[in-house]
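Entry 14. Ran structure prediction on the chain below.
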Amino acid sequence: MLWSDPDDEPPKELREAQDMLRRLGVIMAVAVTAAMVVAALVGLR
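Output, structure tokens:
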């Protein structure tokens, strides 16, 4: 790697978008898990 090579870091906007998508994925996983638990509890009645 030469001293004149550009950094491998993505632009700030892309990093922010990736962080947002990562958080959205975690929220969706928690929401789906909670929905399945609620559906199971309702199904036991």
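Residues 11-44 form one domain. Will compare against last week's run tomorrow.
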